[in-house]
Amino acid sequence: MDQSVDQPSLISASLVAGEAFQPFSLRLSDADHGLIVLCDHAENTLPSEYGTLGLEPDQLERHIGYDIGAKALSEKLADALGATLAMTRFSRLLIDPNRGEDDPTLIMRLSDGAVVPGNARHDAAECARRLDRYYKPYDDAITQACAHVTNVTGRAPVLFSLHSFTPNWRGHPRPWHAGVLWDRDPRLAVPLIELLQAEGDLIVGDNEPYRGELPGDTMHRHGTMKGLPHALLEVRQDLICDDAGVDAWASRLIPMLERLVQIESLRDVLPNEQRQSMTQR
User: Fold this and answer.
1) In 238-275, which positions are buried (b, 16+ CB within 10 angstroms) versus exposed (e)?
2) Contacts for 121 with CB less than 8 Å, ≥ 6 apart
3) For all residues of the chain together, what is the average pLDDT?
4) Mind listing the pLDDT tens digit for each residue in 104-131?
5) What residues does each domain of the chain span?
6) Can you give the pLDDT at residue 170?
7) DSSP states of 217-231 as a string?
8) Reading across the β-sheet that carries 24-28, which strands appear in turn?
């Protein structure tokens, strides 16, 4: 398989048999750095059969529908770095791929004050249907991306997950410009925090505004449990809500990621015993 960095391969979600709606996009790269950019909440799109889940359309434009700015920034980083890129193409309100399958917030009935009528009476069968049609295909795409990087580079994939967070939560302003979420593996997360702090003009959260140890989430499933180097970056949404903001943050992050992927310890999968012995600092 010859997939150059300049012309990466786009793997369509049409690989999901019989599905007209495309639940993910996956672009594979052979770059030796092994970087995989993930965007779990890239779009606010819903399959036609679900309409707007009973919401007014403007509700889907809010942060409850997707991570504002995260898709554009993910694409910009992947393009500049020649990285493998995996993104969802469905709203987090349909089903949240950054949750464990047994997480009570997997399908939200109420999200930041908005009742979601289309989720109000979902049962186990409907949850299983959404898992099979949307959640699992994206999860499988990440597995495919990791296998591809390992096969063509002979090294561990480096998982960099990009999210964004609302500037205000329940009336309280959030001071952080960005936050790095991580659990037990410091190899990528801690150097990323240090580089962001070194910028001098940023308030950087270390497991803020959220905690990084969420059993069953994307980083737990594909990073912690598999011993792969990983980190999740949250950028405040008002900073990347337009092209200028996306460009500014891409300009910050591209040289950081270029440095980070050169860290020698990121080339290896952690042995199981070492994963178990790590504790979050």
Assistant:
1) bbbeeeebbeebbebbeebbeebbeeeebbeebeeeee
2) none
3) 92
4) 999 999 998 889 999 998 999 999 999 9
5) 9-277
6) 80
7) SHHIIIIITTT--EE
8) 9-12, 24-28, 84-88, 35-39, 158-165, 230-236, 178-181, 204-206
- Cβ atoms 38, 87 nearer than 8 A: yes
- Give phi and psi for 121, each to the nearest 5: -120, 25
Quick: pLDDT tens for 129-138. Answer: 999 999 999 9
**Averaged over 89-100, what is the pLDDT?**
98
**What's domain 9-277's architecture?**
3-Layer(aba) Sandwich (3.40)
Token pair recorded at residue 247: 């460009």
Q: What is the pTM of this model?
A: 0.92
Q: Which residues are CB-neighbours of 140 under 8 A, at least 6 positions away?
A: none
178-184 average pLDDT score: 96
Would you tell me how many other CB atoms lie within 10 Å of the CB of residue 57? 10
